[in-house]
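User: Structure please.
Assistant: Input sequence and predicted structure:
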Amino acid sequence: MDILPSTHYHHPLVKQFNSEHPAGSKEIDLSEQALIAEARRITGLERFGDDDFLPPLRTLLDAIENEANLNPFGRHIARTRTLQSLTNRLWANASFEAHPDIRQRKIAAPVIIVGLHRSGTTRLQRMMATDPRLQHLTTWEGINPAPRPNLPDAGRTARYEEVKEAISTRHAVYPGALAHPMGADWPEEEMLLLNHSFSGFSALGLYHLPSYYRWFLSDDKQAGYRYMSDLMKLISRSRNEPEEKRWLLKNPQHMLDLPTLMQTFPDAKLVFMHRDPLKTVGSIMSLSWHFAVQHTDQPCRAATRDIWMDFYEQMARRCIAAREDIPAAQQLDVHYADMNRDWRATMRRIYQFADMEFDSATENAMAAWLAASEREGLHNGHRYALEDFGTTTEEVDARMKFYRERYDISHESERR
C-alpha cells in the first residue's frame, strides 16, 4: 500500500540527477527547433507527414517553459517524452509513405470503455483483454508504435526493451505510480497514442500547465484522434491481425472528447463505468502528485487539486451532454459496485451489448487473470486523503453531486 508523504520530497535518484545537472535550464534544450532537429538526427528521417501536431506541441512546450517550474530532472523527462513522440511520428510516416494502404484499413465496431480515472476501467479492460477475439493496445506498442526500418524485425525487440527499462525506472522513481501498475506487454489505454499528437492528458499529471490545460479543454482534438486511429491501423497491420478483428479500447479522456471519439469510430460500442467520486478524485490527485512532485522544486499539491477537481467536473458534464446525441443501442452503463459484487453477471451484460458470446473459455480466462491480480495485489488501491490536497469529502461530494445523481452512484462504505 502506498502512503502519501506529508511533505514535498524528491526520490534519491532525482536528487542525484539534479545535483549533476545544476544548470538544467541551460543544458536541457526544450525548444521546438532543437527537439525536431534531434528527432531527425536520431531517425535519419525528415518528413513528419502533416504538421497538425505542431500547434499542440507549441502550446505544451510554451507552458512547460513558462509555467511548470521544472527542475533538471523534470526538464529531462519532458525532453525524453517529447523526443519519443517526435521520433515515432517520423518512423510512422515512413511506414505510411511506404504502405499507403495502412490508412485504408477498417476499424469496425470497437468496444470502448469510458469512465473517470480510477473508476475500475483498467481492471475491466485487462479482464476483457484476455479474450483472444479482441485486440488491444499493449504498453510497449503505445509508447513505441512505429516500426523502425533500419533495425532487424522492424525494431520490435529494441522498442519493447526500451519500454521495459522505462517501466522499471518508473517504478523506482515514482513508487506511487504502482497504483496504476504497468508492464511492457500488458494492456494499456490509447492515451499513449494520443500523446504522440501532444493531445493526451498525460502531461497534465506530470507538470503544472495552466495554459495547456485551457487549450486542452477548448481544442476538439480531431487531428489527434485521427492520428490515433492511424497508429492503431499501423499496429494492427504490423501484427498481421485480420482487419475485421475488433479493438478493445479504454481511455478516461474520451469523456471530455466524446463527440470527436464518435466521429472517429461512429459504430463504437461504449461501456461507461461509474464509481463513487469520493474514491476516484482523491486517488487521481494522489497518483498525479507522485509524478509531478519529482519534476519541480515548488509545492504542487494545490495545483494538482485545482486541475483534477476541475478536470473531473468538466469530463462528467461534457460526457453527460454528449451522450444525448449517441444512439442508446451504442451505450451501456456499468457500476463499479456491480462489477465487484458479481463480475460474471456484469460481463454477460457487456458481451450481450457488444454482440459477442460470453463463453466458458472467456469466463475462465478472466477468472484466472482476476485471481492472479488479487494474489499479486495489483489492484488493491493506495492510501490517500483529500485533506492532503486542501479539500474535503463534502466539497468533492457537492461538486460531483450532479454526476452521482445522474447515474445513481452510491457512496462506498469503505474508507481510505
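The chain has 19 helices and five strands.
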